[in-house]
Amino acid sequence: MNDVATDQKERYKYAADQAAAVLAGQRADLTGFQTRCQAVLSSSAITTTIIGAVSKAVFTSNSDKNLLSDWELAVIAVLFALTAIAALAGMWPRKGWQYQPEPKAMIALYDAYPDATDAAVYRNAADSMVTFIEENVTKLNKSVLAVRTAQVLLVLQILFFLGVIISRTF
Description:
Elements: H1 2-60, H2 70-91, H3 103-112, H4 118-169
């Protein structure tokens, strides 16, 4: 019977270790998405600054008109604002994010069942981590959406400006 209990304990321990690895990977993914959002926000700010500078410098020296009309500048500003909102949404800390079982809850459970086997302890840890993994997936998907939205908006901002330049040149 002891060999069966040891085998069961090892299986649950392995499951708990794998769940812990998945949670660590999710944490790294979330950090990566937040870093990408920071990069997109910075890129959008730099792009907006360059657009404004080029618009003023290139065409003010040749005439009293700017490269971009007021409505075109408004479109660039709106695209920047939307990019910033999407990027900030991706960087915002996720409420209720779980990386590991809560020790306080685990201690309370073990105090309630002092005769629990090691296998039961590992099973409980693995079960709670699997629940956290499932909950975190929804939060990660929101981060993915925020990153992709911010990236698309940045590309639209650049393409809009290039379209204006091309239309003025030809």
